[in-house]
Amino acid sequence: MALKLFATVLIFFALALAEDLKGRISFETAKTILSSKTIVKDTEITRYVNLVGSTLVKYSSAPELQVRFGVIKDKTPISISAPWLYVFISQEAIKQAQNEAELAGIIAHELAHIILNHHSIVAFGKTSPDGNIPVEEAARRLAKVSLEESFSIEQEIEADRLAMYILFQAGYDPLALLRFLKREGGSSEIIRQRINAMENILQQGGIRGEFKLNTNRFLRATRAIRQ
Amino acid sequence: MKWIVIILTIKLGLASSSFFVTSIRAQLFEEPRLGARVVGELRKGEEVRLIDKRSGWALVERQGQRGWVFEYFISSSPSPERISLPKIAGRREAHSGDDAAVTRGVTGEKSGKVSSVQVTRKPAEPSEVFVLWLDKFLVKEEEILRFERGEWP
User: How many CB atoms lie within 10 A of CB B24?
Assistant: First the structure.
């Protein structure tokens, strides 16, 4: 019993140190991303995106994450992230979304990449970088993964699946991301495979329940971007 | 240190064969699919016994009740209440064109927990200013509750 308690304390202590390192790397990664992307300094839309994003974090499998959400200028509907603390969504993605559930779907997909440690797996071959890699170097490699969208199709599909579950738990329509991708995702092979994978989940018995879209609130909150 | 943690984690996991709910709530389904009947709800930190796994789903047992939960929502180790991310205390928001921005030098406090960052003067990087600007949008639990109730804006 005493050994188990000691081991548990030791684990928490070690995890705390590891998470501090992740925080510093995340900050540097976000800086690197924002050196090539321009942030939209609009308080109202940023507040709204943070409320939607934080609601998703709350119902995700990692509610302890303190993720910040920002809007960036980009002519394409993209979302990118700096693991483990920053998610950026483009103005164009917000413009093309039709309701809050679709916005939540886009954010949930990015959040899923963070929770599943996909950036780190691509950049370092493991779920977190070694402590002996300098913070700036780790950040440079993680930002490269984000900006070049280097995730495998398996990782994209896994992120979509987790995103659907997060949407479900948060009370948003779990089909919102699928609808957005079908309408705005284009015709690339990756998008086609992602859509197929999500439709396969639905074919296993559909989805039961009543879910929110929050269309009116979404249109009010994003009015400035749509004008 | 890392290997000690891994070994201890595995040993603890095997010894108890217990898993813990990582999400604040997780539905327990009768079958491993989203459209199945919900037979219960698990809460964060709750201990469950893993019985089986099937394509992204885990069959678990809790106090005699069995059900399927998203595999992602349970973990072999209890998740921390709040990850100790570097709190950037004592810093001020840097503004564009300002010649003094925040340079991060981590200061340790008791228990090795990083809780503050020293501020030194250095020419500002615009990207850093923007990252710091996002800090003021961190959302509190009560704000999420109000948002969920539709009390926004």
Answer: 17
